[in-house]
Amino acid sequence: MGGSPTPSVLCALAFYFVSLLGLVQIVQAQNGTTPPSEVSALNSVFNQWRISAKYDQWNISGEPCSGAAIDTTVLWNIDSTDYNPGIRCDCNGTVCHITQLKVIMLDVFGGIPEELWSLTSLTHLNLARNYLTGPLSSSIAYLTQMQYLSVGINALSGEVPKELGKLTNLIVFYFDSSGVSGAIPSTFAALQNLQILWGSDNELTGSIPEFIGNWSKLRNLRISDLSNGSSSLAFLKDMTSLSTLILRNNNISGTIPSNIGDFQSLSQLDLSFNNLTGPIPDSLFNSSSLVYLFLGNNKLNGTPPPLKSPSLLHIDVSYNQLSAALPSWANNSVMATGFDCIPENLPCLGDIRSSPKYSDFAINCGGPEITSSSQIVYDWDNETLGPATYYEASTKRWAVSNVGLFNDKNDAQYLSFSSSQFTTLDTTLDTELLQTVRISPGSLRYFGLGLENGNYSVTLNVAEIAFLNPPTWKSLGRRVFDIYIQAWHVHENNREVELVDARLLEFDEEEVKRVIGVALLCTQTSPQQRPSMPRVVAMLSGDIEVSAVTSGPGYFTNWNFDTTSFMTADTTPSAENEHSQFKNQKRNGYLGWDETCLALDGLMIEELEGSYRIDEIGAKRVSERGENRIMGNGRKGK
């Protein structure tokens, strides 16, 4: 029974393993051989994804577990693009099992083959930054030895499979920007070994599960953009091992736990775009470990302490209900007040609060001063911005703010430049204005300061030079642009009196709220939500109560892009130029508040590449003297 296999057996083996990969035969390796079932599964997966092992790196002489796959001197990193696609094997002298597999940033298109889930020895699997489609199979439950799993930045669909809860050895799990949906399964409660979980920018619904508070080993938690649910932060009280906590835009209500600043390892905290109330705990400002504190766009109140920790360098507490008496450290190096029109703290009010005097501004976003062919001078805008900063132009006509921290850039410039030449259908548009842009991983806002009352139409022109056309992971992303009118914002925060003309020494506060409430009702998109004229008169006179205003006015909520392309790139072949496009959107609205600040507000929901840009902002003002439409990079014209 011993000796070499018969020729017929050799022939059968050779036939079984013929493939496009070149895994032609099983060759005895020095440290062992890979089981035929694993070779077959890997073969099938690579064939369906149309990828292959790089020559002479591994899969040498038809044995997958060879070369770099077993070489302990190779600097192997599951997140690196070296040896990609690549595997790592664990050998015992007789048998080698595939324990690690990475296929990253290769624009693999299509579903995840079912054969992948038969590689049950896998402990590390990285499929990030591809264009994988379809659902995550329930068969993922077979990978019970999995410790590291990344499917982030893909085009998957379907709900997060509950079977993931069976991967109880899981330490790191990335499914951010993957496309999955549904609630976070209750079976995740069993993932007690998790140290890192990223799940932002998906179609997740429901609440943040309370059982996360039992993950005592968790160091890095990022869950954002949950919809159709509400959450609280009560589960955080004992999670003292956290170093990074990002829970943006999750409809979180209640207060911030008072002891959170005592977490000795916490260096980054982002709870922005929620409904948090109450004071900001002093422990956060006194933390010896915290470096980044982002709490903007909540309903927090009170006054920050007079002193803060020297390590706390980047702070955003803008768009809250903080006291006007802010501490001395709240200057332009931190976004302490933002531009939410708190009296005596907002640069856009200042000496122009009582006498707004501008009706135009022009900005070359991210670039130097440029005089266009129409003799419009576009202000330079290459001031260095950081993770939480704002800058007010010397002209006092506009300002810019940025909030956010790049995941993978240690020295982010928040600027980008393209040397591409663009051809536009609008021959009056100088394409040099499209070559410099601001980028931001979170929120980028431009503000028009001291604008006169009147009818304005804002035109937003965008040159897309970052997101390509599918199928590629570089096409996966969404941009959200808002023309933000301050009236709705202050109404949401019950601060309507701040819109009163500063020259009015006496006024009825209830009357102010009544008038603004009626105005917002009358600008609702749906006719059914607008009151009749008799009802308007009754509300203004105080005979009946003003109906509750539950949604923003039409000019704010109905912001939809015209997806028609108005620009073609030059004929120079490049990935960047090939998919560039120029989009234009125009919106009308009346800015009738005396110290109006028009905020051109961009919030990037997708943190894909940390890339967000506003390339073009244009506007026109309608006056008795006629119209003059001016388009340009940050142009607002009278």
Automatic annotation (TrEMBL):
A single cellular component GO annotation: plasma membrane
Keyword Ribosomal protein: no
Gene3D superfamilies in alphabetical order: Galactose-binding lectin, Ribonuclease Inhibitor
Keyword list, A-Z: ATP-binding, Glycoprotein, Leucine-rich repeat, Membrane, Nucleotide-binding, Phosphoprotein, Receptor, Repeat, Signal, Transferase
Bilayer topology: Single-pass type I membrane protein
InterPro entries hit by this protein: Leu-rich_rpt (IPR001611), LRR_dom_sf (IPR032675), LRR_Rcpt-Like_S/T_Kinase (IPR051824), Malectin_dom (IPR021720)
Signal peptide location: 1-29
Broad EC category: transferase
Mitochondrion among keywords: no
Classification via Pfam families: LRR_1, LRR_8, Malectin
EC number: 2.7.11.1
Major location (coarse): membrane
Malectin domain location: 361-492
Catalytic activity reported: L-threonyl-[protein] + ATP = O-phospho-L-threonyl-[protein] + ADP + H(+); L-seryl-[protein] + ATP = O-phospho-L-seryl-[protein] + ADP + H(+)
Single Gene Ontology MF annotation: protein serine/threonine kinase activity
PANTHER family (alphabetical): LEUCINE-RICH REPEAT TRANSMEMBRANE PROTEIN KINASE, LEUCINE-RICH REPEAT-CONTAINING PROTEIN DDB_G0281931-RELATED
Protein name, UniProt field: non-specific serine/threonine protein kinase
